[in-house]
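Suppose a colleague, Dr. K., hands you the sequence of a protein chain of 71 amino acids and asks what its three-dimensional shape might be. Before reaching for any lab equipment, you can write down a predicted structure in token form. Begin with the sequence itself:
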Amino acid sequence: NLAGDINDDNIVNITDISNILKNYGGTTASADANQDGTVNISDISVVLANYGKTYTPPPTGSPIPSGISGT
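The predicted structure, expressed as tokens, is then:
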């Protein structure tokens, strides 16, 4: 959905960075933002690149594409 949204709450924020730091150096897939197999500085970089962005999923059953907003 949204790159860097580690906890799938549709916003990239400090919670996502916190989840990466909790799993830093490991292989937890849910904290591996760039999906390279290791939770590391590259994953933090993905979060920072998208920090503050939000994702609005389309209404259920709607063919309208969803949007990503933020800075």
